[in-house]
């Protein structure tokens, strides 16, 4: 239970930390790194997507995608990691996240480590920009550019398919206690907007809300991006919503559970793939998700 509670907090923070920014501790003209430690799932997936997974020598316990990430040495969790373990891996680059605290980064830098921090992106465009920056850091700019081109092309196609369909009110839930949803200043908002939907929390800069507010706005679709679709928290949350039969999403059986791993820490490619799933859930008229 403690693991699930911590993981739930992590998902909330990872989906909603803003102020996209990256900072390089040392001269970026140095040779391309050969031993990388990643302090977050998004960075880990990006490195693998670039084809540089063999250079990852350490990741967190939450870095589970792709499957090969599970085999890497674990340095702790996203917010609590062992500096000693990191040092023992002799990294020449550490990829930090918005959850990495300034004192932690400062300590690593004082020990001579090169740290690059990527704060949580606020949009699909910023997800792509950060990916391109990682590609530049690793000397894989052309590959990064091609992956971003393909992801943007897929997102454009999904958006075009959805544009002529009825616009539906959507609540994308990513937390339960307190109730938390996608707000306008989070990249999770783009899942809804690019699918042609209307975010019921689009007037909020933060995702904290209440059942009363969501019920008042009567969403046509409720998407639950939380752990435990069969027996865990997500299933319990779905059962809660089904107690309100007057809500359009419940009446029309449009309450769906989707993987938080896909929603909350996407690479450009994962964002595009997840968008194709979400677009079909929001728009049942789309007979098949965009390939």
From TrEMBL:
Transferase as a keyword of this entry, yes or no, is no
Q: Which PROSITE patterns match?
A: FE_B12_PBP, PROKAR_LIPOPROTEIN
Q: Which residues cross the membrane?
A: none
By its UniProt entry, which InterPro entries does this protein fall under? Answer: ABC_Transporter_SBP, ABC_transptr_periplasmic_BD, Vit_B12_bind_prot
Signal peptide, first to last residue: 1-25
For the Fe/B12 periplasmic-binding domain, which residue ranges apply? 35-286
Chain coiled-coil ranges: none
The UniProt entry, under Pfam families, shows: Peripla_BP_2 (PF01497)
The record's keywords, sorted A to Z, are: Signal
| Domain of life per record | Bacteria
The protein's matches in PANTHER family, at most eight in alphabetical order, are given as: MOLYBDATE-BINDING PROTEIN MOLA (PTHR30535:SF34), VITAMIN B12-BINDING PROTEIN (PTHR30535)
Spell out the protein name for this chain: Iron complex transport system substrate-binding protein
